[in-house]
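stage 2 :: seqdesign
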């Protein structure tokens, strides 16, 4: 039996030291075992679990079948959690959201300005997915509601899919498997290659590109990458200065860049011509990064030996909907070319990724609701303070969301001036600013007075006190 030291609501720390009851404990473990009469571990000050001072139980609504791990983690924090497998329409949300302090959604539930107007108690929104465009982010920010998501939990899943596509293209086995399903035996080795010793060119060396770099080297590939930022290469990978240099040296080119004006059609006729004859293009990034009619031409002419696409400029809204020329005018031309692997945006769709999304977003919600930290919020300034410890029993944390206008800090600091402000941090993003301050030695009688005074400041959007 062992218990790791962790801050409630934060991710488990892989470097956390365990307190063990085993008779063979190492000296460091022995030093970490708390004495019964002490509230701290030899010099380590334990964080205090904070709660809203008005003491109302926090109610969370989780929709769209969010993972059970997330439900359990949030219930373990003492939140009352209502869980549904379905999305809710705008009308249903308008009726129900008023009694909840936080909501967790995936991509189907839309949080509109109208919904937010009915959300009188709402403190936070968790998007248990990558994107956040199902939420009116600006209206949420103006209502003092941070929105959290999980942009990178599926990086490994995408990297593994790309690696499988490299082998599949190189061996043409998707085509062979398709022929076998049609009852055709077509064994051949012409144009089929091992990937060992081949060069992989990664465009965009972020979360996915860098994971892929490690996996590809384990397969014996030589890895080049191009990124707008200078980055430390992993393993023996090498950063090249220009996209053209990468294109002309690579046997496989794979895109892992965000959708930006500069990355729209970043692979078009000119860039395809710079690629080696017989090379392959893979796009699991965003559909608009590749000029698909130009790609169709490069494949038909035999300049490229194959391509794998997981993302498209226009994608069907639901399973079963057609992927045809009405959606994208080149769809049937693309579908007719051999050795082209087309997948329906499944790069990040694995159970592991879903579980990690659940963990990440539920921790972000917990950190905000219990401690006021907005790290990872997409529509809010990111602010955090080090923990109030158990040795600071009369400390109160002020979480003050306000309009980003001149003179606010003077007003707030006037309210706080009779007290000892032990730490304070403020930041702004657009029209919204957020201040966190820990105040020492606030008597229980003063807490509500303090909250009222801050609430009355002219720029106030939402004030919470945690203790
Ligand atoms: N297929 C899927 O299911 C799936 C899943 C997750 C992510 N994605 C997409 O994958 C892409 C990459 O995701 P990530 O998590 O690795 O992102 P990331 O932000 O971690 O990395 C992107 C990298 O691209 C670099 N970059 C930006 N503009 C560039 C340019 N013009 N040229 C070269 N490099 C440039 C950035 O500096 C950064 O290093 C995103 O478009 C994302 O939407 C797809």
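stage 2 :: out
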């Amino acid at each position: 039996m062992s218990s790791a030291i962790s801050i409630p609501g934060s991710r488990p720390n892989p470097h956390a030291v365990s307190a063990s009851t085993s008779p063979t404990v190492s000296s460091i473990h022995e030093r970490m075992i708390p004495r019964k009469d002490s509230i701290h571990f030899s010099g380590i000050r334990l964080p205090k679990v904070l709660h809203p001072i008005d003491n109302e139980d926090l109610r969370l609504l989780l929709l769209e079948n969010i993972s059970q791990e997330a439900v359990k983690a949030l219930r373990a924090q003492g939140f009352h959690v209502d869980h549904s497998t379905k999305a809710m329409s705008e009308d249903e949300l308008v009726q129900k959201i008023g009694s909840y302090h936080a909501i967790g959604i995936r991509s189907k539930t839309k949080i509109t300005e109208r919904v937010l107007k009915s959300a009188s108690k709402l403190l936070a929104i968790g998007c248990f997915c990558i994107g956040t465009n199902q939420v009116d982010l600006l209206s949420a920010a103006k209502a003092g509601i941070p929105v959290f998501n999980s942009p990178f939990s599926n990086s490994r899943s995408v990297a593994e899919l790309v690696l499988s596509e490299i082998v599949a293209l190189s061996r043409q086995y998707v085509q062979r498997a398709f022929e076998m399903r049609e009852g055709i035996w077509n064994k051949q080795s012409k144009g089929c290659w091992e990937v060992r010793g081949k060069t992989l060119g990664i465009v965009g060396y972020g979360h996915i590109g860098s994971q892929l770099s490690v996996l590809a080297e384990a397969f014996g590939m030589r890895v080049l990458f191009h990124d707008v930022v200078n980055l430390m290469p992993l393993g023996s990978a090498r950063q090249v200065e220009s996209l053209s240099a990468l294109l002309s040296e690579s046997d496989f080119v794979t895109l892992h860049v965000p959708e930006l004006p500069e990355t729209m059609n970043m692979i078009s006729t000119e860039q395809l011509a710079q690629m080696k004859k017989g090379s392959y293009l893979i796009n699991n990034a965003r559909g608009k990064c590749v000029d698909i009619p130009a790609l169709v031409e490069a494949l038909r002419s035999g300049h490229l030996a194959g391509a794998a696409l997981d993302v498209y400029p226009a994608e069907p809204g639901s399973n079963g909907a057609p992927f045809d020329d009405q959606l994208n005018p080149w769809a049937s031309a693309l579908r007719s070319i051999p050795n082209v692997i087309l997948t329906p945006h499944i790069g990040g769709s694995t159970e592991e990724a879903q579980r990690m999304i659940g963990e990440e977003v539920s921790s972000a919600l917990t950190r905000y609701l219990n401690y006021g930290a907005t790290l990872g919020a997409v529509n809010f300034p990111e602010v955090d303070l080090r923990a109030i410890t158990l040795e600071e029993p009369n400390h109160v944390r002020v979480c003050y969301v306000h309009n980003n206008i001149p003179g606010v800090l003077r007003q707030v600091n006037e309210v706080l001036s009779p007290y000892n402000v032990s730490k304070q941090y403020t930041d702004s993003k657009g029209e919204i600013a957020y201040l966190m301050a820990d105040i020492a030695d606030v008597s229980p009688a003063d807490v509500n007075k303090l909250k009222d005074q801050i609430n009355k400041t002219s720029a106030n959007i939402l004030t919470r006190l945690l203790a």
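stage 3 :: structure notes
- The chain has a mean pLDDT of 89.
- The chain has 15 helices and 20 strands.
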